Amino acid sequence: MIITKIKSLRVNFKTSSNLLITGLFVFSLLAFSTLQAASQGSAGATSSGTVEIGIAVNRSIIIQGLRDFNFGLWRNGDGTLIDNDDVCVAKTSNFGNYGVRAAGDGDGFDPSAFTLSNGFDQINYNVYWNDQTGTAGTQQLTPGLIQHGQVETAFHVIIAVIFGVCANNANVQIEIPDTELASAVGGAYSGTLTLLVIPD
Questions:
Q1: pTM for this one?
Q2: Of 85, 125, 132, 164, which residue has the fewest beta carbons closer than 10 angstroms?
Q3: Cα–Cα distance between 123 and 183 in angstroms, integer?
Q4: Are the C-beta atoms of residues 61 and 197 closer than 8 Å to each other?
Q5: Could you read off the pLDDT of 79-113 as tens digits, one per residue?
Q6: How many CA atoms, within 13 angstroms, populate the side-chain half-sphere of residue 186?
Q7: Is residue 195 part of a domain?
């Protein structure tokens, strides 16, 4: 199992801004058996031997096209901050459903909680996923839990494998609620968001 992790999610709050989500996730699942030597039969009225049978199954998936998010300077009265980005999810060997798991920096109650911190105070944010481009039909993700049943079409796999083009076919959306921003202490907040895509 190979996971290449997203890099960073950063927000500067009530100062110069930078909310960053950047990264590339590659998930590969490789199942295999370690073969033992075959045992040979011996001469007799009957004879039996054994052979080991093994196979390696490679199911690979990739997410690309993630970009930096810059929410700018937030002031009281500006309201909830929302931004989204179309991304590409492609399986390199087959098509069908996949799952997506999002995890933030965590807090004292949940190690995967979606949080930004200035070192002393925390801001909670929400993450939404859509298995098509745009935000119509987005699903809110629960920190640390896999949201199964996302669809990646055969046509998209063919384009990705044959032509090496990972065209956008999904969307990630970040929402920082006004209530969180209004109650936060001023300063620069940062955190890390990890998105893991998994073949179903």
A1: 0.72
A2: 164
A3: 9
A4: yes
A5: 999 999 999 888 766 667 889 999 999 998 999 99
A6: 7
A7: yes
